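In the laboratory, one determines a bound structure by crystallizing the protein with its ligand and collecting diffraction data. In a computational setting the workflow is compressed into a single prediction: the sequence and the ligand go in, and a structural description comes out. We illustrate the idea with uridine-5'-diphosphate.
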Amino acid sequence: MRLSIVVPCFNEEAVIELFDARIRQTLATLPVEYELCYVDDGSRDATLDRLRALAAGREHTTRYVSFSRNFGKEAGILAGLKAATGDAVVIMDADLQHPPELIGRMLELHQAGHDQIIARRTRDGDKPLRTALSRLYYRMVNQWVDVELTDGVGDFRLLSRRAVDALLSLPEYNRFSKGLFSWIGFDTVTFDYRNAAREAGQTKWRIGALVNYGIDGLISFNNRPLRLAIYAGLGLATVAATYAVVVTVMAAIQGPDVPGYVTLLVAIVGLGGIQMLMLGLIGEYIGRIYYETKRRPHFLVKETNAAPQGSAALAP
Ligand code: UDP
Ligand code: MG
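The predicted complex, in structure-token form:
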């Protein structure tokens, strides 16, 4: 049994060596052969130098792929999955927020026949406001999207070879991996672990990025929001038609009614707002179609120590 560990790294010079030591220590105690697949996602610090140094002399267990620029974590995961040759693959962060000790448990569950073993973090130590917002978001999203998204579930998981191949067979450009993992299905189990703080370095998430991520989650997996636009339009049109009849009848009975300026303004502004929102929504979908039709690769590789046949497989 051969296990691949996929690690996307962006500006992780502060923690990458520590991670490498910890993970190798853990893997040495497990009954598997292993390979580490580091993906340097266009780091601007010394991450790539560190990876080169780590891989020197142990090319058979440590591979790295370095991107030409920052393509985002989703692209990093994809490159890692493409590079991985193992019978099973574990995806984890470089900052040790995903405890390596859990891999043993994941392996046991994998050997018991599961294809996706998800480690879900609790929200210990998160800001209460952020926790509340996340809860609300997931409750809302799960009403809407066709795949199940779970709070606290991230990318930390073990995937069987057939689950990895299934993921790699999905060609889309916009990769919202939380949704993709859920979409492929297979026998899935989840267990919880206590949330840990980052060992060193800084989080790459800014609030704007989180909001964008949230929008991706909502519209990556269905067109129900567009359906909502149709219903909202129908509803408003019905209200307007009814109101027009009422006003006409009133005018016929009482004569024309000049006041009502505020009502008019509110109606115009309100409708304008809704229209803008719906246009934006449609624009989001069209934007996605635009990117899909370009068929650009998900990432460009600048440097790798992967074997030649490996780098052919790396071509996106
Ligand atoms: N990461 C990446 N590309 C990016 C941003 C992040 O490969 O553009 C990696 C990062 O190096 C880390 C993981 O994704 O290994 C999670 O990032 P981070 O710890 O900043 O996120 P958080 O844990 O705060 O959600
Ligand atoms: Mg982190």
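The radius of gyration is 25 Å. Keep in mind that any predicted model is a hypothesis to be tested, not a measurement.
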